[in-house]
Amino acid sequence: MTVDINNLQDLGNPLRDLKKTFDESIIPHRPSLWRYCYQLTGSPWDAEDLVQETLIKAFSSLAQLWQPINPKGYLFKIASNTWIDQCRKVKIKMDSFEYHNEPSYEKEDLSGEVEEAMERLVLHLPPRQRVVLLLVEVFGFKAKEVGEIFGATEGAIKALLNRARVRLKEIQLNEEGFNQLAISEEQRNTISLFIESFNRRDPDGIAKLLDENVSNDIVHIAQEFGKDTVRSYSLTDWAKDPVEMKAEVHILWGKPTIVQIGEMNNCLGVYNLNLIEIDSGRIITVKDYYFCPELLKEAAKELQLSVFSRNYVM
């Protein structure tokens, strides 16, 4: 196959069908993967980012797989290692799997306690303890399976799990709400203009707010680069969308968020979410979460609204 190196889109064409097949094949594991990432990170935004990075790595690594592999374990392993690597980069202290004297392991049902303590886990448990405890207690992996995922002995996993349980019992509940981030006057003005254009269903009005080199990330699906491209594709499709909707600004999990609200069965529901980054009064990046059903559901719960049902793929 001859590929024009000046036009990598040609190389991407045959990959799109393969990517769609991959996305469809892992749909059964997407809800639990997102929930796992949420409980690891403690933030719906960070969870969605971790899921996205996990799926990109999983797909890009397919050519390197030469043996049968369990899809769920494969995804959870990548998510776990990716998150631990992120923790290393910010110099979070890691626990080792190696112990000279392994503590005794006694099976105890702590799943309800773990679920109720997720906020505390995020703040207090070291990364490896958190990963192992979540995999075993919440997502049903056996200690042996977790050991296979991380290349550790079953005994080492049990020891680490025991330490996590002990630590969990020591943690005192400390409820903390999300801080409301201050929005600059520049952000406020640009967001207001975006909302006004959106609610007029005016794609040209929105395009005027975009930087010439804007990037639009339709999370899990596609990326667009440049104002002309965004105007020709995403904004044109949005202008033709038959759903009646309006946009509002809400602080969701610490970030000013464009919430698209539509009417569904005579009640209001979350239709989409956008995060925008602004520089010098122009929108330089857009993240579009249309194909992120778990995140949309979490936002709807936060806003006490319904949510539009959504697929993972186009």
Structure characterization notes:
The protein is of the alpha/beta class and 314 residues long. The chain folds into two domains: 154 residues, PhyR, sigma-like (SL) domain (Butyryl-CoA Dehydrogenase, subunit A, domain 3, Up-down Bundle); 123 residues, Nuclear Transport Factor 2, Chain: A (Roll). It is built from 14 helices and seven strands. Strands 1, 2, 3, 4, 5, 6 and 7 form a seven-stranded mixed β-sheet that branches. Strand 3 and strand 4 form a beta hairpin. It is globular, with a radius of gyration of 22 Å. About 8% of the residues have low confidence. Keywords: Sigma factor, Transcription, Transcription regulation.
Quick structural gist:
The chain has 314 residues and is α/β, with parallel strands linked by helices. The protein contains 14 helices and seven strands. The protein folds into two domains: 154 residues, Butyryl-CoA Dehydrogenase, subunit A, domain 3 (Up-down Bundle), CATH 1.20.140.160; 123 residues, Roll (Nuclear Transport Factor 2, Chain: A), CATH 3.10.450.50.
